[in-house]
Amino acid sequence: MPISDSKKTLAVLLLTVLLLPFVINCFFAYPQTDDFVYSVAARSLGFLTCQYDWYVKWSGRFTSTVLLSINPLVHDSLAGYRLSFALLIAAQVGSLYLLTHALTKRTLAWQEKLAFSLALLFACLDQMDDLRSWLYWMAGVATYQVAATMMVLWLSLILLMDQDQKFDNLWNRGAVLALSLFLGGTNEIVLSLTFLFSLTLIAYRYASRKTLTPFHIATFFAVATGSCIGVFAPGNFARMKSDYDTHRTVWTIAWNAFKAALASMEVWMTYPVTLILVTAVFCTVISRPQLRAIYGRIRILYSMCMLLLLVVLGFFIPYWATGMYPQNRVLNIIYFFFMIGLTINVAVIFSKLGEPALAFLKNIPSKRCSMVGVVFLAVLFCLQRSNFVTVTKDLLSGDSLRYSREMQQKQSQLIHCATSHCTTSEVTTRPASLYFYFIDSDPQNWVNRAYAAYFGKESVSLAK
Questions:
Q1: What is the dihedral of CA 332, 336, 338, 341, to 10 degrees?
Q2: Torsion angle defined by CA atoms of residues 432, 435, 441 and 447, in that order, rounded to the nearest 10 degrees
Protein backbone atom coordinates (compact mmCIF):
# COMPACT_ATOMS: atom_id res chain seq x y z
CA MET A 1 0.00 0.00 0.00
CA PRO A 2 1.51 3.37 -1.04
CA ILE A 3 2.52 5.74 1.73
CA SER A 4 1.07 9.24 1.57
CA ASP A 5 3.34 12.28 1.14
CA SER A 6 2.29 13.59 4.55
CA LYS A 7 3.48 10.39 6.26
CA LYS A 8 6.77 10.53 4.35
CA THR A 9 7.30 14.14 5.42
CA LEU A 10 6.41 13.22 9.01
CA ALA A 11 9.04 10.46 8.94
CA VAL A 12 11.65 12.96 7.70
CA LEU A 13 10.75 15.41 10.48
CA LEU A 14 10.88 12.69 13.15
CA LEU A 15 14.32 11.50 12.02
CA THR A 16 15.55 15.09 11.88
CA VAL A 17 14.43 15.58 15.49
CA LEU A 18 16.29 12.39 16.48
CA LEU A 19 19.49 13.77 14.93
CA LEU A 20 19.14 17.22 16.52
CA PRO A 21 20.73 16.29 19.90
CA PHE A 22 23.89 15.19 18.07
CA VAL A 23 23.98 18.52 16.24
CA ILE A 24 23.26 20.65 19.32
CA ASN A 25 25.98 18.86 21.28
CA CYS A 26 28.53 20.05 18.69
CA PHE A 27 28.29 23.54 20.15
CA PHE A 28 29.57 22.38 23.57
CA ALA A 29 32.62 20.47 22.32
CA TYR A 30 36.08 21.60 23.37
CA PRO A 31 39.45 20.86 21.71
CA GLN A 32 41.55 18.02 23.10
CA THR A 33 44.98 16.38 22.68
CA ASP A 34 45.93 16.21 18.95
CA ASP A 35 43.77 19.24 18.14
CA PHE A 36 46.37 21.41 19.85
CA VAL A 37 49.31 19.46 18.38
CA TYR A 38 48.27 20.06 14.77
CA SER A 39 47.24 23.67 15.37
CA VAL A 40 50.55 24.53 17.08
CA ALA A 41 52.53 22.89 14.27
CA ALA A 42 50.61 24.83 11.60
CA ARG A 43 51.15 28.16 13.38
CA SER A 44 54.81 27.64 14.24
CA LEU A 45 56.09 25.97 11.05
CA GLY A 46 53.83 27.46 8.43
CA PHE A 47 51.48 25.56 6.16
CA LEU A 48 53.86 24.09 3.56
CA THR A 49 56.68 23.26 5.98
CA CYS A 50 54.14 21.64 8.26
CA GLN A 51 52.88 19.35 5.47
CA TYR A 52 56.40 18.28 4.60
CA ASP A 53 57.22 17.65 8.25
CA TRP A 54 54.15 15.44 8.85
CA TYR A 55 54.68 13.52 5.62
CA VAL A 56 58.36 12.78 6.23
CA LYS A 57 58.31 12.18 9.99
CA TRP A 58 54.85 10.93 10.98
CA SER A 59 52.13 10.02 8.45
CA GLY A 60 51.13 9.64 4.81
CA ARG A 61 47.67 11.08 5.50
CA PHE A 62 48.38 14.14 3.39
CA THR A 63 44.72 15.14 2.96
CA SER A 64 43.94 14.90 6.68
CA THR A 65 47.05 16.86 7.68
CA VAL A 66 46.08 19.62 5.24
CA LEU A 67 42.61 19.84 6.82
CA LEU A 68 44.03 19.83 10.34
CA SER A 69 46.52 22.54 9.39
CA ILE A 70 43.73 24.91 8.36
CA ASN A 71 41.22 23.99 11.07
CA PRO A 72 39.55 26.92 12.92
CA LEU A 73 41.76 26.46 16.01
CA VAL A 74 44.74 27.65 13.99
CA HIS A 75 42.97 31.02 13.95
CA ASP A 76 41.81 30.78 17.60
CA SER A 77 38.19 30.26 16.60
CA LEU A 78 36.40 28.01 19.08
CA ALA A 79 33.06 28.93 17.47
CA GLY A 80 34.36 27.85 14.07
CA TYR A 81 35.68 24.63 15.60
CA ARG A 82 32.20 23.77 16.88
CA LEU A 83 30.32 24.96 13.81
CA SER A 84 32.45 22.78 11.53
CA PHE A 85 31.18 19.66 13.33
CA ALA A 86 27.55 20.61 12.74
CA LEU A 87 28.23 21.40 9.09
CA LEU A 88 29.91 18.03 8.61
CA ILE A 89 26.83 16.23 9.93
CA ALA A 90 24.79 18.08 7.29
CA ALA A 91 27.39 17.15 4.64
CA GLN A 92 27.17 13.50 5.65
CA VAL A 93 23.38 13.56 5.27
CA GLY A 94 23.82 15.13 1.84
CA SER A 95 26.34 12.54 0.67
CA LEU A 96 24.14 9.66 1.89
CA TYR A 97 21.15 11.21 0.11
CA LEU A 98 23.15 11.33 -3.12
CA LEU A 99 24.20 7.70 -2.68
CA THR A 100 20.59 6.64 -2.00
CA HIS A 101 19.54 8.51 -5.14
CA ALA A 102 22.21 6.66 -7.15
CA LEU A 103 21.35 3.25 -5.72
CA THR A 104 17.57 3.53 -6.19
CA LYS A 105 17.60 5.07 -9.68
CA ARG A 106 14.60 7.40 -9.32
CA THR A 107 12.27 4.74 -7.88
CA LEU A 108 11.80 6.63 -4.59
CA ALA A 109 10.35 10.05 -3.81
CA TRP A 110 12.73 12.64 -2.41
CA GLN A 111 11.14 12.32 1.05
CA GLU A 112 11.83 8.56 1.06
CA LYS A 113 15.44 9.04 -0.02
CA LEU A 114 15.98 11.69 2.63
CA ALA A 115 14.30 9.50 5.27
CA PHE A 116 16.60 6.57 4.40
CA SER A 117 19.64 8.85 4.55
CA LEU A 118 18.65 10.24 7.95
CA ALA A 119 17.76 6.78 9.27
CA LEU A 120 21.08 5.29 8.16
CA LEU A 121 23.05 8.13 9.72
CA PHE A 122 21.06 7.90 12.96
CA ALA A 123 21.67 4.14 13.14
CA CYS A 124 25.42 4.71 12.70
CA LEU A 125 25.63 7.53 15.25
CA ASP A 126 23.48 5.76 17.82
CA GLN A 127 25.59 2.58 17.96
CA MET A 128 29.01 3.91 16.99
CA ASP A 129 31.78 2.58 19.23
CA ASP A 130 33.16 6.03 20.12
CA LEU A 131 30.96 8.96 19.16
CA ARG A 132 33.41 11.49 20.60
CA SER A 133 36.13 10.81 18.04
CA TRP A 134 33.61 10.74 15.16
CA LEU A 135 31.72 13.97 15.87
CA TYR A 136 33.33 16.12 18.56
CA TRP A 137 37.12 15.89 18.14
CA MET A 138 38.73 17.68 15.21
CA ALA A 139 41.66 15.27 14.81
CA GLY A 140 39.24 12.34 14.54
CA VAL A 141 36.65 14.17 12.44
CA ALA A 142 39.16 15.37 9.83
CA THR A 143 40.72 11.92 9.55
CA TYR A 144 37.65 9.67 9.63
CA GLN A 145 34.29 11.45 9.30
CA VAL A 146 35.45 13.72 6.48
CA ALA A 147 37.08 10.74 4.77
CA ALA A 148 33.87 8.68 4.96
CA THR A 149 31.82 11.58 3.58
CA MET A 150 34.28 12.12 0.73
CA MET A 151 34.22 8.45 -0.18
CA VAL A 152 30.41 8.26 -0.21
CA LEU A 153 30.33 11.35 -2.43
CA TRP A 154 32.99 9.84 -4.74
CA LEU A 155 31.04 6.58 -5.13
CA SER A 156 27.75 8.43 -5.65
CA LEU A 157 29.14 10.60 -8.44
CA ILE A 158 30.67 7.61 -10.23
CA LEU A 159 27.37 5.71 -10.14
CA LEU A 160 25.29 8.72 -11.19
CA MET A 161 27.61 9.57 -14.10
CA ASP A 162 27.35 6.00 -15.32
CA GLN A 163 23.53 6.03 -15.08
CA ASP A 164 22.56 9.43 -16.43
CA GLN A 165 24.26 11.49 -19.12
CA LYS A 166 23.26 14.78 -17.48
CA PHE A 167 25.57 14.00 -14.53
CA ASP A 168 28.48 13.26 -16.85
CA ASN A 169 29.79 16.81 -17.10
CA LEU A 170 33.13 18.55 -16.63
CA TRP A 171 32.43 19.60 -13.03
CA ASN A 172 31.55 16.10 -11.84
CA ARG A 173 34.47 14.57 -13.69
CA GLY A 174 36.81 17.04 -12.06
CA ALA A 175 35.29 16.30 -8.64
CA VAL A 176 35.70 12.53 -9.13
CA LEU A 177 39.33 12.87 -10.21
CA ALA A 178 40.15 15.20 -7.30
CA LEU A 179 38.44 12.91 -4.79
CA SER A 180 40.19 9.89 -6.32
CA LEU A 181 43.54 11.50 -5.61
CA PHE A 182 42.81 12.95 -2.17
CA LEU A 183 41.02 9.93 -0.69
CA GLY A 184 44.38 8.16 -0.57
CA GLY A 185 45.58 10.79 1.89
CA THR A 186 42.76 10.51 4.44
CA ASN A 187 43.28 7.24 6.32
CA GLU A 188 44.38 3.70 5.55
CA ILE A 189 40.88 2.17 5.66
CA VAL A 190 39.45 4.58 3.10
CA LEU A 191 42.60 4.34 0.98
CA SER A 192 42.24 0.54 0.73
CA LEU A 193 38.48 0.57 0.15
CA THR A 194 38.76 3.26 -2.54
CA PHE A 195 41.39 1.20 -4.36
CA LEU A 196 39.27 -1.97 -4.00
CA PHE A 197 36.07 -0.29 -5.23
CA SER A 198 37.76 1.45 -8.16
CA LEU A 199 39.36 -1.83 -9.23
CA THR A 200 36.01 -3.64 -8.89
CA LEU A 201 34.11 -0.97 -10.84
CA ILE A 202 36.61 -0.83 -13.68
CA ALA A 203 36.72 -4.66 -13.91
CA TYR A 204 32.90 -4.87 -13.88
CA ARG A 205 32.56 -2.22 -16.59
CA TYR A 206 35.09 -3.95 -18.82
CA ALA A 207 33.49 -7.37 -18.26
CA SER A 208 29.96 -6.09 -19.00
CA ARG A 209 30.67 -3.59 -21.80
CA LYS A 210 34.04 -4.76 -23.15
CA THR A 211 35.29 -1.21 -23.19
CA LEU A 212 36.87 1.45 -20.96
CA THR A 213 36.73 5.19 -21.52
CA PRO A 214 39.75 7.47 -20.96
CA PHE A 215 37.91 8.92 -17.94
CA HIS A 216 37.65 5.51 -16.23
CA ILE A 217 41.34 4.90 -16.83
CA ALA A 218 42.18 8.39 -15.51
CA THR A 219 40.05 7.76 -12.40
CA PHE A 220 41.86 4.51 -11.63
CA PHE A 221 45.21 6.20 -12.26
CA ALA A 222 44.27 9.02 -9.85
CA VAL A 223 43.22 6.50 -7.19
CA ALA A 224 46.47 4.55 -7.64
CA THR A 225 48.55 7.74 -7.50
CA GLY A 226 46.90 8.98 -4.29
CA SER A 227 47.23 5.52 -2.74
CA CYS A 228 50.94 5.34 -3.56
CA ILE A 229 51.58 8.81 -2.17
CA GLY A 230 49.83 7.78 1.04
CA VAL A 231 51.31 4.30 1.42
CA PHE A 232 54.93 5.08 0.60
CA ALA A 233 55.23 8.18 2.79
CA PRO A 234 58.53 8.13 4.74
CA GLY A 235 56.58 9.09 7.85
CA ASN A 236 54.66 5.80 7.80
CA PHE A 237 57.84 3.74 8.04
CA ALA A 238 59.39 6.04 10.64
CA ARG A 239 56.29 5.80 12.82
CA MET A 240 55.93 2.04 12.48
CA LYS A 241 59.59 1.51 13.34
CA SER A 242 59.42 3.66 16.46
CA ASP A 243 55.93 2.83 17.77
CA TYR A 244 54.99 -0.68 16.63
CA ASP A 245 56.40 -4.18 16.35
CA THR A 246 56.53 -5.08 12.65
CA HIS A 247 57.47 -8.75 13.08
CA ARG A 248 54.13 -10.34 12.15
CA THR A 249 53.04 -13.00 9.67
CA VAL A 250 50.39 -12.19 7.08
CA TRP A 251 48.42 -15.38 7.75
CA THR A 252 48.18 -14.68 11.47
CA ILE A 253 47.03 -11.15 10.75
CA ALA A 254 44.46 -12.37 8.21
CA TRP A 255 43.07 -14.96 10.63
CA ASN A 256 42.80 -12.42 13.47
CA ALA A 257 41.11 -9.94 11.13
CA PHE A 258 38.66 -12.59 9.89
CA LYS A 259 37.68 -13.63 13.43
CA ALA A 260 37.30 -10.02 14.57
CA ALA A 261 35.21 -9.18 11.50
CA LEU A 262 32.78 -12.06 12.05
CA ALA A 263 32.44 -11.27 15.77
CA SER A 264 31.76 -7.59 15.10
CA MET A 265 29.28 -8.27 12.30
CA GLU A 266 27.36 -10.61 14.56
CA VAL A 267 27.02 -7.84 17.14
CA TRP A 268 26.31 -5.03 14.68
CA MET A 269 23.52 -6.95 12.92
CA THR A 270 21.61 -7.45 16.17
CA TYR A 271 21.42 -3.79 17.19
CA PRO A 272 17.76 -2.67 17.44
CA VAL A 273 18.36 0.29 15.14
CA THR A 274 19.94 -2.07 12.59
CA LEU A 275 16.89 -4.35 12.72
CA ILE A 276 14.58 -1.37 12.23
CA LEU A 277 16.63 -0.15 9.26
CA VAL A 278 16.69 -3.64 7.73
CA THR A 279 12.90 -3.86 8.15
CA ALA A 280 12.47 -0.52 6.37
CA VAL A 281 14.66 -1.66 3.47
CA PHE A 282 12.78 -4.97 3.32
CA CYS A 283 9.37 -3.27 3.15
CA THR A 284 10.56 -0.81 0.50
CA VAL A 285 12.13 -3.44 -1.75
CA ILE A 286 9.29 -5.97 -1.70
CA SER A 287 6.74 -3.25 -2.45
CA ARG A 288 8.68 -1.80 -5.44
CA PRO A 289 8.99 -4.01 -8.53
CA GLN A 290 11.43 -1.47 -9.99
CA LEU A 291 13.82 -1.93 -7.06
CA ARG A 292 13.49 -5.70 -7.25
CA ALA A 293 14.41 -5.51 -10.92
CA ILE A 294 17.50 -3.39 -10.15
CA TYR A 295 18.88 -5.57 -7.35
CA GLY A 296 17.58 -8.86 -8.74
CA ARG A 297 20.42 -8.80 -11.29
CA ILE A 298 23.04 -8.96 -8.52
CA ARG A 299 23.99 -12.39 -7.21
CA ILE A 300 23.54 -12.81 -3.48
CA LEU A 301 26.82 -14.69 -3.08
CA TYR A 302 28.80 -11.91 -4.80
CA SER A 303 27.10 -9.23 -2.73
CA MET A 304 27.68 -11.00 0.59
CA CYS A 305 31.30 -11.80 -0.26
CA MET A 306 31.95 -8.12 -1.05
CA LEU A 307 30.50 -7.09 2.32
CA LEU A 308 32.59 -9.68 4.16
CA LEU A 309 35.70 -8.61 2.24
CA LEU A 310 35.01 -4.97 3.11
CA VAL A 311 34.82 -5.68 6.84
CA VAL A 312 37.75 -8.12 6.91
CA LEU A 313 39.89 -5.60 5.03
CA GLY A 314 38.88 -2.93 7.54
CA PHE A 315 40.20 -5.10 10.38
CA PHE A 316 43.22 -6.42 8.47
CA ILE A 317 44.79 -3.00 7.95
CA PRO A 318 45.09 -1.95 11.63
CA TYR A 319 46.17 -5.47 12.61
CA TRP A 320 48.89 -5.33 9.95
CA ALA A 321 49.99 -1.79 10.77
CA THR A 322 49.96 -1.99 14.58
CA GLY A 323 49.55 -5.64 15.51
CA MET A 324 46.62 -4.66 17.70
CA TYR A 325 42.81 -4.70 17.64
CA PRO A 326 41.56 -1.50 15.93
CA GLN A 327 41.16 1.65 18.00
CA ASN A 328 37.65 2.93 18.65
CA ARG A 329 37.84 5.59 15.95
CA VAL A 330 38.88 2.94 13.40
CA LEU A 331 35.96 0.73 14.45
CA ASN A 332 33.70 3.73 13.81
CA ILE A 333 34.55 3.93 10.13
CA ILE A 334 34.42 0.14 9.62
CA TYR A 335 30.95 0.13 11.20
CA PHE A 336 29.84 3.06 9.03
CA PHE A 337 30.74 1.29 5.78
CA PHE A 338 29.37 -2.01 7.07
CA MET A 339 25.96 -0.40 7.60
CA ILE A 340 25.91 0.91 4.03
CA GLY A 341 26.94 -2.49 2.71
CA LEU A 342 24.39 -4.27 4.88
CA THR A 343 21.45 -2.23 3.53
CA ILE A 344 22.58 -2.99 -0.04
CA ASN A 345 22.82 -6.71 0.80
CA VAL A 346 19.33 -6.68 2.31
CA ALA A 347 18.02 -5.11 -0.89
CA VAL A 348 19.75 -7.79 -2.98
CA ILE A 349 18.46 -10.68 -0.84
CA PHE A 350 14.84 -9.54 -0.73
CA SER A 351 14.77 -8.63 -4.40
CA LYS A 352 15.04 -12.40 -4.98
CA LEU A 353 12.36 -13.15 -2.37
CA GLY A 354 9.89 -10.41 -3.27
CA GLU A 355 6.94 -12.51 -4.43
CA PRO A 356 7.26 -15.25 -1.75
CA ALA A 357 7.67 -12.56 0.92
CA LEU A 358 4.54 -10.73 -0.21
CA ALA A 359 2.54 -14.00 -0.24
CA PHE A 360 3.80 -14.84 3.24
CA LEU A 361 2.95 -11.39 4.63
CA LYS A 362 -0.63 -11.58 3.36
CA ASN A 363 -1.27 -14.52 5.69
CA ILE A 364 -0.03 -12.65 8.78
CA PRO A 365 -2.35 -10.45 10.87
CA SER A 366 -0.47 -7.22 10.23
CA LYS A 367 -1.78 -5.09 13.11
CA ARG A 368 -1.10 -7.66 15.83
CA CYS A 369 2.35 -8.58 14.50
CA SER A 370 3.27 -4.93 14.02
CA MET A 371 2.48 -4.21 17.67
CA VAL A 372 4.51 -7.23 18.81
CA GLY A 373 7.42 -6.14 16.61
CA VAL A 374 7.34 -2.57 17.91
CA VAL A 375 7.26 -3.72 21.56
CA PHE A 376 10.09 -6.21 20.92
CA LEU A 377 12.30 -3.57 19.31
CA ALA A 378 11.48 -1.04 22.06
CA VAL A 379 12.58 -3.51 24.74
CA LEU A 380 15.77 -4.27 22.83
CA PHE A 381 16.47 -0.56 22.40
CA CYS A 382 16.15 0.01 26.15
CA LEU A 383 18.55 -2.83 26.90
CA GLN A 384 21.21 -1.68 24.42
CA ARG A 385 23.79 1.04 24.82
CA SER A 386 22.63 4.13 22.95
CA ASN A 387 24.65 7.18 21.99
CA PHE A 388 21.40 9.04 21.39
CA VAL A 389 20.42 8.48 25.04
CA THR A 390 23.91 9.48 26.23
CA VAL A 391 23.96 12.71 24.24
CA THR A 392 20.39 13.63 25.18
CA LYS A 393 21.11 12.95 28.84
CA ASP A 394 24.22 15.18 28.75
CA LEU A 395 22.21 17.98 27.16
CA LEU A 396 19.15 17.76 29.41
CA SER A 397 21.19 17.40 32.62
CA GLY A 398 23.27 20.45 31.69
CA ASP A 399 26.55 18.49 31.76
CA SER A 400 27.49 19.53 28.23
CA LEU A 401 26.86 23.21 29.04
CA ARG A 402 28.73 23.05 32.36
CA TYR A 403 31.65 21.27 30.70
CA SER A 404 31.83 23.93 27.97
CA ARG A 405 31.81 26.75 30.51
CA GLU A 406 34.39 25.06 32.73
CA MET A 407 36.80 24.48 29.85
CA GLN A 408 36.44 28.07 28.66
CA GLN A 409 37.11 29.28 32.20
CA LYS A 410 40.28 27.19 32.32
CA GLN A 411 41.30 28.62 28.96
CA SER A 412 40.74 32.18 30.20
CA GLN A 413 42.66 31.42 33.40
CA LEU A 414 45.59 30.10 31.40
CA ILE A 415 45.64 33.04 28.99
CA HIS A 416 45.71 35.51 31.88
CA CYS A 417 48.22 33.51 33.95
CA ALA A 418 50.94 35.96 35.05
CA THR A 419 53.79 33.43 34.83
CA SER A 420 55.01 31.18 32.03
CA HIS A 421 54.63 28.05 34.20
CA CYS A 422 50.93 27.64 34.96
CA THR A 423 48.84 25.16 36.89
CA THR A 424 45.12 24.48 36.83
CA SER A 425 42.64 22.17 38.52
CA GLU A 426 41.19 18.92 37.20
CA VAL A 427 38.02 18.93 35.09
CA THR A 428 35.04 18.33 37.38
CA THR A 429 32.28 17.93 34.75
CA ARG A 430 32.93 15.10 32.32
CA PRO A 431 30.03 14.43 29.94
CA ALA A 432 30.34 10.94 28.48
CA SER A 433 29.55 12.23 25.00
CA LEU A 434 32.32 14.86 24.93
CA TYR A 435 35.17 14.46 27.42
CA PHE A 436 38.01 11.97 27.12
CA TYR A 437 41.28 13.67 28.19
CA PHE A 438 42.60 16.96 29.53
CA ILE A 439 46.15 17.24 30.91
CA ASP A 440 47.93 15.63 33.85
CA SER A 441 50.38 16.65 36.59
CA ASP A 442 53.48 16.05 34.44
CA PRO A 443 54.35 19.23 32.50
CA GLN A 444 56.49 17.13 30.10
CA ASN A 445 53.54 15.01 29.02
CA TRP A 446 53.00 15.49 25.26
CA VAL A 447 49.43 16.68 25.80
CA ASN A 448 50.55 19.20 28.43
CA ARG A 449 53.29 20.50 26.14
CA ALA A 450 50.89 20.92 23.21
CA TYR A 451 48.34 22.68 25.41
CA ALA A 452 51.03 25.04 26.79
CA ALA A 453 52.45 25.79 23.35
CA TYR A 454 49.03 26.63 21.93
CA PHE A 455 48.47 29.27 24.62
CA GLY A 456 52.03 30.55 24.55
CA LYS A 457 53.20 29.18 27.91
CA GLU A 458 56.35 27.26 28.79
CA SER A 459 54.51 24.64 30.79
CA VAL A 460 51.05 23.72 32.00
CA SER A 461 50.10 21.04 34.54
CA LEU A 462 47.45 20.03 37.02
CA ALA A 463 47.90 21.43 40.51
CA LYS A 464 49.04 18.69 42.89
A1: -170
A2: 140
Running DSSP on this structure, what letter comes out for residue 443? T
Question: Do residues 223 and 234 lie in contact, with contact meaning Cβ atoms separated by under 8 Å?
Answer: no
Neighbours of 83 (CB within 10 A): 14
> Could you tell me the sign of the dihedral formed by the alpha carbons of 42, 45, 51, 57, in that order?
negative
**Residue 444: per-residue pLDDT:** 94
Grouping H, G, I as helix, E, B as strand and the rest as coil, residue 130 is coil
**Hey, is 46 helix, strand or coil?**
coil
Quote the pLDDT of residue 463. 87
User: Is residue 199 within 8 Å of residue 205, measured between CB atoms?
Assistant: no
- Is the torsion defined by CA of 183, 189, 195, 198 positive or negative? negative
Centroid of chain to Cα 463: 37
CA pair distance 1, 7, nearest whole angstrom: 13
pTM comes to 0.92
pLDDT on residue 242: 63
Q: Which of 462, 366, 368 is nearest to 414 (CA)?
A: 462
Task: In whole angstroms, give the CA distance from residue 408 to residue 103.
Answer: 45
Q: Phi then psi for 297, rounded to 5 degrees?
A: -80, -15
What are 424's strand-pairing partners? 462
Distance (Å, whole) CA 355 – CA 352: 8
**Cα–Cα separations (whole angstroms), residue 435 to 19, 28, 265, 299, 432:** 20, 10, 28, 45, 6
User: Among candidates 92, 68, 64, 310, which has minimal Cα distance to 189?
Assistant: 310
* Contact between residue 433 and residue 390 where contact means Cβ atoms under 8 Å apart: yes
Burial of residue 80 (number of CB atoms within 10 Å: 0-12, 13-18, 19+)? middle
96 pLDDT band (50/70/90 cuts)? very high
Kindly state the greatest CA–CA separation across the chain: 79
- Residue 421 parent element (H or E): strand 421-424
Confidence of residue 365 (pLDDT cuts 50, 70, 90): low
In sequence order, what DSSP letters do the residues of 389-406 get, joined into one string? HHHHHHHHHTHHHHHHHH
Q: How far apart are CA 152 and CA 129, in angstroms?
A: 20
Question: What would the pLDDT profile of 391-404 be if each residue is shown by its tens digit?
Answer: 999 999 999 999 99
Run of H or E residues at 460: strand 459-462
Residue 460 sits at φ, ψ, to 5 deg, of: -140, 140
